[in-house]
Write a structure and sequence with these properties.
The complex is a heterodimer. By secondary structure, chain A is α+β, with helices and mostly antiparallel strands. Helix content of chain A is about 60%, strand content about 5%. Chain A has one domain (about 30-350). Chain A contains twelve helices and six strands. In chain A, about 40% of the residues are buried. Chain B is mainly α. Chain B has a single domain, classed as de novo design (two linked rop proteins) (Up-down Bundle), CATH 1.20.1440. Chain B is elongated and about 85 Å long. Classes of the chains: A alpha+beta, B mainly alpha. The interface between A and B is medium-sized, with 13 and 18 residues.
Chain lengths: ~350, ~190
């Protein structure tokens, strides 16, 4: 029997331990992201916009003939570039957060689930059960008319959240498996993943703005590093500043790619977290395993759901092949972890995930 | 002097923070406990309908149906009485009786063809699940509340501030629900 594909042997973690681990990892990645943004933003301000709150005060002569030490003016102490790009990035992201759910639902042509047919009534009941288990208000339940198996959740607040499943999913899964999938989506709502990904999108937007602007300034042959007009007493020594500048330029050029990688890493962690939270809600990890295996078997892409909401789905809507591909680059750019790893983690929660014993 | 005052202020603010957190959790515990009753009552309301719709088809199961009706009546009375041990016992017997009914209904394929019965069976499954999840959620919040009282620094103040650990929901040791239901499937 083939051992697991995860490489090193993963430690046995139960429902609570997995959730704690995923939350810690999210915090770590987001911290790196924020740090990255600050380096880019403050560097931009330092090299291009005369931002230097730590500059030594300049000494010059006033009209009365006295020497006076002047601290940098108020404007030089505010990192305009960082703040403005942050405002724009978060503004755009905030707008998508507010209008997002309705736009997403309209784009997928989802319809409200009504207790008409057996399956839909069952679906509504399952959503209500998961809301009871989570102690949250019942989300609105929608159905997407697509034969593929997929589901997503959206909504920034548990009180205005939405869960949608495709018709294919309703037809293929039994009650327990449907419960697992709905629990996974409910967990995204419970863990405020929409808000987190929106903030990530805002940061990506801000970083892209900075990167764009820096690129423009460079192209016009702007000042190699700014501040030349302020006199030389405010600047540190030459070589160190140049090295910083070169490193910063490299970061700026790689910024769009790096920020995307970081955001995808966060997205993958949240998927693992949603799986573990779902297992906590249903206390039945194996039902989600069965559902994931059925979903994996049906490798059709979900045409109704476009890429913009891909990270909120239970599986990549671009099609199963994206999750079966392994390899370094594919792993880094995926919104969802490979199915193998998710199933292994869930089996660990059911105490069935150990590597096979030697015969 | 001012340092001492600031430190005392911070400690005071911290105690207020702990107190407010525990108050919130205690109310969640009370709420979750009552939600279990909400689901139990739903089950009581659902049963007469169910029994009536299957009675025609399941003519040979009079005993099973009667047991369900009696168990329901006993559970409703226990609910009005308010003795928790009694409620648990009677609700447990109702669960057993319903379980038997559901298993026996497998012998009657015509029941599945009947739309009304099918949707009622789904409602029954749904209600049983709701009761289970409500109890699970109650245990979850009780655990959070108890942990909140027992972690360090709160454990120094919790008893003083009037909090005591809540009790987890559990089946009594002699409850009928701990036995596997015995079902006779021979016709």
């Amino acid at each position: 029997m083939r051992p697991s594909t995860s490489g090193s042997r993963a430690p046995q973690m139960n429902i609570y331990e997995q959730q704690a681990y995923n939350k810690r990892t999210t915090v770590a990645i987001v911290a790196v992201f924020v740090l990255f943004f600050l380096v880019l933003g403050l560097g931009f301000d330092y090299f291009y916009l005369n931002f230097s709150p730590l500059a030594a005060p300049q000494i010059h002569m006033t009209e009365d003939g006295y020497y006076e030490a002047q601290r940098p003016s108020g404007a030089a102490r505010i990192p305009f570039g960082t703040i403005i790009s942050l405002l724009i990035g978060l503004g755009v992201a905030g707008n998508s957060m507010v209008n997002g759910p309705s736009m997403v639902l309209r784009s997928t042509m989802a319809r409200r689930a009504v207790p008409g047919s057996d399956k839909e009534k069952q679906y509504l009941n399952v959503v209500e059960e998961m809301a009871t288990a989570a102690g949250l208000p019942v989300p609105t339940a929608y159905i997407v008319p697509d034969p593929d198996l997929n589901a997503f959740a959206t909504g920034t607040n548990p009180s205005n959240s939405v869960i949608a499943v495709t018709e294919g999913l309703l037809d293929s899964l039994n009650r327990e498996e449907l419960q697992g999938v709905v629990a996974h989506e409910m967990s995204h709502i419970r863990n405020y993943d929409m808000r987190l990904m929106t903030i990530m999108a805002g940061l990506i937007g801000a970083i892209t703005l900075l990167s764009d602007f820096a690129g423009r300034s460079l192209r016009f042959g702007g000042r190699s590093y700014g501040g030349a007009s302020r006199g030389d007493s405010g600047k540190r020594g030459g070589p160190a500043a140049i090295i910083f500048f070169v490193i910063w330029i490299i970061l700026i050029v790689l910024a769009p790619l790096l920020s995307r990688l970081l955001a995808m890493a966060v997205s993958r962690q949240r998927e693992f977290l949603a799986d573990a939270s779902a297992a906590e809600l249903t206390r039945n990890p194996l039902s989600l395993v069965a559902a994931l295996e059925k979903i994996r078997a049906a490798v059709m892409p979900t045409n109704a759901i476009n890429n913009g909401v891909g990270h909120m789905c239970i599986t990549d809507p671009r099609g199963g092949l994206f999750e079966e591909k392994s390899g370094f680059v594919a792993d880094l750019l995926a919104t969802h972890p490979p199915m193998e790893k998710r199933i292994l983690a869930l089996k660990m929660m059911a105490y069935q995930g150990g590597s096979p014993q030697p015969a | 002097m001012t340092i001492l005052a600031v430190v005392l202020l911070l400690v005071g603010a911290w105690i207020v923070y702990i107190f407010n957190g525990l108050v919130g959790l205690r109310n969640q515990v009370a709420n979750a406990f009552r939600q279990i009753d909400v689901q139990l009552k739903r089950r009581h309301d659902l049963i007469p309908n169910l029994v009536e719709s299957v009675r025609g088809e399941m003519k040979f199961e009079k005993e099973t149906l009667e047991r369900v009706i009696q168990a329901r009546a006993a559970a409703v009375t226990a609910g009005q009485g308010g003795n928790t041990g009694d409620i648990l016992a009677k609700e447990g017997m109702l669960t057993q009786a319903l379980g038997r009914l559901m298993a026996v209904s497998e012998n009657y394929p015509n029941l599945k063809a009947n739309d009304g019965v099918r949707s009622l069976m789904e409602e029954l499954t749904h209600t049983e699940n709701q009761i289970g999840f409500a109890r699970q959620f109650y245990n979850d919040v009780v655990t959070k509340f108890n942990t909140g009282q027992q972690v360090f620094p709160a454990n120094m103040f919790a008893a003083m501030l009037g909090f005591s650990p809540a009790v987890l929901w559990e089946l009594p040791a002699d409850s009928v629900e701990r036995e596997t239901p015995k079902v006779n499937l021979t016709i």
